[in-house]
Amino acid sequence: MTGKEDDMARTVSASEVAPTTYAWEIKAEGLVVKAGRRRAVNGLDLSMGVGVHGLLGPNGAGKTTFIRALATIARPSDGALELFGEDVRRARDLRQVRRRIGYLPQQFGYYRRFTVREFVEYLAWLKEMPKQDVPGAVQRAIERVGLADRADDKMKTLSGGMVRRAGIAQAIVNDPAVLLLDEPTAGLDPAQRMQFRELLHELRADTCVVVSTHLVEDVAAACTDVALIDEGQLVFQGTVADLAAAGTGSDVGDSDTERGYSALLANHRRPV
Ligand SMILES: Nc1ncnc2c1ncn2[C@@H]1O[C@H](COP(=O)(O)OP(=O)(O)OP(=O)(O)O)[C@@H](O)[C@H]1O
């Protein structure tokens, strides 16, 4: 890219430069991603388009590693991964892809002396958002997570649940086409979880949201579909109703969705 083209790219928002030629926002085929020496994602086939996708799986299933690969932080070691139709293993410059992604890591760092507003502004700057759009986008993101009354308080004065909501605000500030949320409801109280579900409902019409969670009930309430992974592979992808229908009265769980989850996992792990 020439310097001039680069300057032009900086003056348009991520949604304006969206190519329309791809079928899926996310497409993984035979994807392998290592965490340390372990193949934490081990031959994953999974496609996701616009909607809210619950990413379920037991501890160590590979959810975080997959999300890190989608955030272009962990590099795949085999297979294919496309974001917006772009092969991330071959792409020479991932900045265009990254501008269109929002990411809430499971654990994230921040300057404790930053105010909530400064924290969200900083991420907007990292995403190379047009300068004139930043104040409005930051205010809107903070309002959407219900932190408007704390916007000018320092991060170090917030509760754990508020910090997580500030993390969600920084993830949505650039109006991402793909939003990656790793355990977003950890530490949220019931009222905050309800508010978060409402936010997902708003986003589902025009954003590809991936929500990793242990809480099957969060998925049932807010997701358009579910992907269940185990040992780095896809076990099931379908609607919440399909998930619920997979269980029987004898499977472990307090609800149809939990019983479906247990049944699919047990079936996958059953020796052949
Ligand atoms: N840095 C690392 N070095 C070695 N192994 C790792 C590393 N990070 C993760 N792993 C291993 O890779 C596997 C997948 O981990 P990952 O964190 O992706 O799973 P997860 O589904 O997100 O789990 P959880 O639900 O507990 O967060 C696990 O067996 C984990 O122990």
From TrEMBL:
Residues 26-256 form the ABC transporter domain. It comes from the Bacteria. InterPro entries: AAA+_ATPase, ABC_transporter-like_ATP-bd, P-loop_NTPase. Coiled coil: none annotated. Keywords: ATP-binding, Nucleotide-binding, Transport. GO terms for molecular function: ATP binding. The keyword Transmembrane does not apply. Belongs to the ABC transporter superfamily. This is ABC transporter ATP-binding protein. It comes from Amycolatopsis minnesotensis.
